[in-house]
Amino acid sequence: MDDQGYISSASSNLTDVIVSLLDSLARRTLVPPNEVQASPRENGPACAAIVLVAIVIEGSVNRLRYFVDNERSAPPEDGGKGRRREHVLDWLEGRLPADLHARCEEVFCVRDVIAHAHTWHARTNPFPTLHFAKQPRLHRYGDPRFRRVIDQRTRRSRLLRLNAFPTRIWRRDAFLAYQTMIDAITALEPLDPTGMNFSNWGHHSFNEKDLLLPDIARALTVPDDG
Questions:
Q1: 94 Cβ partners below 8 Å, 6+ apart?
Q2: I want to staple 163 with a disulfide (CB 3.0 to 4.6 A). Which of 17, 29, 168, 193 is the partner?
Q3: Contact between residue 24 and residue 218 where contact means Cβ atoms under 8 Å apart
Q4: Count of domains forming the chain
Q5: Torsion sign (Cα): 35, 56, 30, 116
Q6: Domain for residue 1, yes or no?
Q7: Residue 165 sits in which domain range?
Q8: What is the pTM of this model?
């Protein structure tokens, strides 16, 4: 709320869904993916969690911009049509530490892989286990940011090593994305004049405990991916 009324940001309302997805993944028997894919029951929740994490980061940043950039003033007469709004990652540059900004870039790139259904050309061999018979190639997807952040040979991001091959995304990717979300929003909290921090976002059920969101990030056991 502010002196102009209700602020329509729903980002904090998505966190309970994210935690439920992470909790369901953490409870399952750990079965790492093969070279090509994770199990559908692992891949689906992990993909959903990453997409929601990116939405929460973007929504939280745009709420912050409303206050920091004085966007509460009345829109221009042309409705803002002549003004191109800065991409959220560009706005974050310089406001986050460089390594944390790079992690956010990687999360957004993997979100795009999922949301835009990035397609890779691949030839596989099922024996002895499913693996690539030929190095996969990305088909007509990815902007310059994506191609800079994602190693096309390994099909992973360069810093966190998040999977960019859609069917291979699993709990490790979701856990690291969530931890990035926590670190990014925590780093931005001092900029928020309304004092909207994670202590206001309530407790959430994870591993049969009621925990604050940062506590859940610390409780996650991030598995190795070879």
A1: none
A2: 168
A3: no
A4: 1
A5: negative
A6: no
A7: 11-71+86-122+130-219
A8: 0.90
